[in-house]
Amino acid sequence: MKRGTRVTALVAATIVSGVGFAGTASAAGPPVYSKYTVTGTTHIAKPGADLPLGPGQFDMYTLIGSYTFYGTITLPPVKVTKSVPGIGKVSGTVTLGPGSAEGSVFGSFTGSATWPVKVSDVRVNGVPYDVGASCGTAQPVTTELVPDGFVTGKGGRLNSTYTIGEFANCGSATPVVNAAVPGPGNTLALDLTWG
């Protein structure tokens, strides 16, 4: 890397991390792109299920001057199997996202992500249910992303407690899915590694 390019990169990193500036300014120039590898877990409270997440990716774009960001968090589908009282063994594939993230890095990190949640390959006691391609939450799930050692341009953990709303468009399995999944008190922990 040439010296001029290195200095420019260091200045951009300093600005984005919220170090060495005061006050606000209008956005200047194109957004700064950062890529993070994402792994983590989510705990779904109603069935008491812990789902491993990732590895996925967070593509983050930070606007210099306003020190706001936007981006997309992409995670692979995950298989879950759980015994539900009164129903039996319920299994399915859960896809969280892609999540649309936004927030601010002015001084410290604040942010949220909005996730569509979809369910596919639903089986109850081994019997498959045709839920179609549109089975998911009627409204996207919103998670507030609370930093736990997370530093822009370095990485760290983001935590959230969130509510899952009712599911729709799941055919005959809609009541089963709604009995097994929606509710408050769900938790999310994402570990982001920069680069």
Describe this structure in words.
The protein has helices spanning 3-16, 174-180; strands at 32-44, 49-63, 68-74, 78-84, 88-96, 99-104, 110-115, 117-124, 127-129, 136-137, 141-151, 155-164, 167-168, 183-194. It is mainly β and 195 residues long. A hairpin with a 3-residue loop joins strand 4 (78-84) and strand 5 (88-96). It starts with a helix and ends with a strand. The strands form three sheets. An eight-stranded antiparallel barrel has the order 1-2-3-6-7-11-12-14.
Please compute the radius of gyration using only Cα atoms.
20 Å
Shape: elongated
Uncertain runs: 1-25
**Measured distance between first and last alpha carbons:** 16 Å
In a nutshell, what does this entry contain?
This protein is mostly beta strands and 195 residues long. Helix content is 11%, strand content 57%.
Keywords:
single chain, 195 residues, mainly beta, eight-stranded antiparallel barrel, four-stranded antiparallel β-sheet, 2 helices, disordered N terminus
Task: Map the helices and strands.
Layout: H1 3-16, E1 32-44, E2 49-63, E3 68-74, E4 78-84, E5 88-96, E6 99-104, E7 110-115, E8 117-124, E9 127-129, E10 136-137, E11 141-151, E12 155-164, E13 167-168, H2 174-180, E14 183-194
Antiparallel strand pairs: 1-2, 1-14, 2-3, 3-6, 4-5, 5-8, 6-7, 7-11, 8-9, 10-13, 11-12, 12-14
